[in-house]
Amino acid sequence: MIRFLFLTFLFPVSALALDLPEGWRYPTKKELSDDYRVHFSVELVKATGDYNGDSKIDAALILVSTEFQGDGLFIHLSNPNGYSWLRLNIDNWDKTYPDKGYIYSGLNMGIDTLSVQDTKKIIQRSIQRFESDPPKDKTITTESLSYFRLESAGSLFYWSKSENKFIRYWYSD
Q: With the CA atoms of 18, 19, 25 and 28 taken in that order, what torsion angle do they form, in degrees rounded to the nearest 10?
């Protein structure tokens, strides 16, 4: 968490200077300054960590679509050939609320990097409190990405070595 806060105040989201996936952009200052985010005084749209366990730092971002009303969670993930973008989640309000006149008002999700120990604690607490099913891949060995709505439920994305992909695990606080 300290690394996240340090990185948050060290540079703005756009300072990552990554070539973004086609059809996506960084959030604007206005989108990052609504009451929801100002209340918590932390920019929650970027996180870094070694999410796939290859000792290289990956970057996770919540980006805004340039093609529809919505946003998405992406990871700039290291691989043997360098880095590539991996889409983990899309919220497309055009498809979710067709013909409802819904206007996308900005981001309402946040992300944070969790240590292996914190990831296991959240999963264990969720299993005990809500009798949720444990992850199929029980050997979590990398940092995970927490994707959440403040004061609401969230999910973890962690790397499964056995499946060579991210697994999503839902939890509630």
A: 30
Residue entry with tokens 């944070």: 112
CA distance 164 to 168: 13
Return the H-helix or E-strand segment holding 147. strand 144-148
To the question of pTM greater than 0.70 for the whole model, the response is: yes
Residue ranges per structural domain of the chain: 2-171
Report in angstroms the alpha-carbon separations of 100 from 75, 117, 166: 31, 43, 33
Q: Is 15 helix (H, G, I), strand (E, B) or coil?
A: helix
Chunked mean pLDDT (size 10), the chain, 173 residues = 43 62 90 61 80 96 90 95 94 67 68 92 76 66 89 86 89 71
